[in-house]
Amino acid sequence: MKTPKFLDPALEPIAEKVITGQRLTRSDGITLYRSSDLMGVGRLASLVRKRLYGTKTYYVYNQHLNYTNVCVNRCLFCAYSKDKGENGAFTLSLDDVVRLIQERTDEPIKEIHIVGGLNPELPFSYYLDLVRTVKSIRPETAVKAFTAVEIDHFSRISGLSLGKVFEAFKEAGLSMMPGGGAEILSDRIHLKLYKKKIGPQRWLEVTKEAHKAGIPTNATMLYGHIETLEERVNHLLKLRALQDETGGIQAFIPLAFHSENTTLAHIPPTTAFDDLKTIAVARLVLDNIPHIKAYWVMISPALAQVAMAFGADDMDGTIVEEKITHMAGARTPKRLTIDQLREMILAAGFEPVERDAFYGH
Amino acid sequence: MATRQSIKRLDFHLALDLYRNADLIDLGARADAVRRALHPEGTVTYVVDRNINYTNICTSGCFFCAFYRPKGHTEGYILSKDALKKKIQETIELGGTQVLLQGGMHPDLGLSFYEDLLGFIKDNLNIHVHGFSPPEIFFLSRKEGLSIEEVLKRLIRAGLGSIPGGGAEILVDRVRKVVSPRKCTADQWLEVMEKAHGLGLRTTATMMFGHVETLEERLEHIFKIRDLQDKTGGFTAFIPWSFQPENTRISVRKATAAEYLRTLAISRLVLDNIPNIQASWVTQGAKIAQIALFFGANDMGSTMIEENVVAAAGTSFRLSREEMVRLIETAGFNAQQRDTFYRPV
């Protein structure tokens, strides 16, 4: 049986480029996003994904640690942050951190993911001690911590340059950054939704400095709020340009916006059509970023499973105690076991490969 | 682009090979092309209705069922006419066009109960009754010592409008002996449908997969439906859905979204003679149901103002009419409310 041609003829010239390995343009990205031929776009993304990884799908045994929800930024899309002293506000002491990490030392955790709010009460030394503490209990485990937003904050409260900040954290044991806080890299969205937080320029600058300091990062995109499709494509192109320069981005992670309990609660949840399209377009446009992650906490395990056929090659991990998305109304489970994750991957016709933080296996 | 004429009939071995070996995305794209050739207007339909289960008392005791209660159980019920009337009135007020009337095989309820029930609805309410799956019809025929045809004729006379395709499970007796040993056989199920079609009743056909059946048996089911459709043309739609194991006596890993989509796509490809394939948001959730529209489905099924059977097995997704329309439209289709016969409302 012959594979049908594209339902959307606008995909034909893009397919030609994908097949011959040519870079896609901004207008290609927009055409892909606008196309109603989800399966056509998916087939192209799948072709690239298979060329890179065959049927391999990566996952990681990880632990999440959110050290505080107190945050001065109070972004409009966040249901997690609290003001200092507000009911439900918390900050982990180093003793709390010791307890949380020690609770699971019998598990083969490869990566500890640490992010938090910008709590003005915490001194620079807290963050260094946080990394040192985790590392002292689990020296073998990679610490993947702090968004560019937090790093910028550390630089300001310490008076140190970005280079010096990274140097200090590398010494403490930081080996990677998770890539959050990028939101949509657009000045318009910055002003509207997250104006107290660092903007697109600074996010890219901090991330670039991280790469220069030898710290690889991921890069995220928070989509499905007020941004246009053009702004999404611009976001991808900014990441692609940075990656051309540094090569330091390991994975791209689209984050579906969850509006519940935020001031943007009137915005409906992202659709599966949009979720899969976003993964597929990212795989096609980001020709220089190795991995595309389907983050099941955001889009449900069922859709993350299907996303493997639409360009995703990484299913993230067996996250325990995910808080940020669940505060915004995510009804996805907080934990998947390794067996559940592996079965999901196998049942979709892919081969599960456990990785470490750096995609070694 | 595929056209209706260019759709080639799949044989069993090719279907099996595709299920086993085709990439999920390629299989989906093939089903999508066929779906768009059969429904080039770019519409996805849905029906506004309510599942009314007139009794949960059932002698069948299927192993996959979390809904039924044995006779004498404190939670057993038979719906009163008042309750039935209220439920149907609510359905009509919400723009509903049909009620799906299904129940257990209650050992004490004879044909006169059903005739009375249908007559009551016909006399008091303006709604289409899509009711009584083949196992219920077969049960009545045995209980009353009447032919299937006679039972059907009397139900039609009393007001039955069409038959839902439930109770098909997997139409292979090896499987039925394991999961529903006291229910009608595969041939008896098909016989009821054939007779119903012969009397001018349209019906749907379902398939509950992902329990003890082999892949070959799952395909055998789909091919049996295709064969009967070649003969009668009476099926309006095919509705595959995955077994929900919670609270039942069958312990298996629940079929994943990828397996559901694969089965849906194969159904679309094999059933070239059945116009409509329904997505099952009730078992898959809204996200996967939307993606199902690209894996062969052209109908979102019912808004299900009420649903009890799947909910009893631990799966309870909710979907308002507005949300259903949004799902359809954001996927790039026109949403169209339909009646039982897939005509626009």
Give the tags:
heterodimer, A: 361 residues, alpha/beta, TIM Barrel, 4-stranded parallel β-sheet, 3-stranded parallel β-sheet, 15 helices, 10 strands, 43% helix, globular, B: 345 residues, 13 helices, 44% helix
Query: Could you name the CATH class of chain A?
Result: Alpha Beta
CATH architecture of chain A: Alpha-Beta Barrel
| Beta-strand content bin of chain B | 5-15%
User: What is the straight-line distance between the termini of chain B?
Assistant: 30 Å
Number of domains of chain A: 1
Classification by helices and strands of chain B? alpha/beta
**Sequence of secondary-structure elements of chain B:** HHEEHEHEHHHHEHEHEHEHHE
Helical percent range of chain B?
40-55%
Chain-averaged pLDDT of chain B: 93
- Please work out how many helical segments of chain B DSSP would assign: 13
Give the amount of beta strand of chain A, in percent.
Answer: 5-15%
Radius of gyration of chain B: 19 Å
Q: Label the overall shape of chain B.
A: globular
Helix content of chain A: 40-55%
Structural class of chain A: alpha/beta
Query: What is the count of helical runs of chain A?
Result: 15
Give the integer mean of the pLDDT values of chain A. Answer: 93
Radius of gyration of chain A: 20 Å
Biggest interface in this structure? A-B, 33 and 35 residues
Numbering strands along the chain, what is their spatial order in the largest sheet of chain B?
A: 8-1-9
Main beta sheet strand tally, sense and closure of chain B = 3 strands, parallel
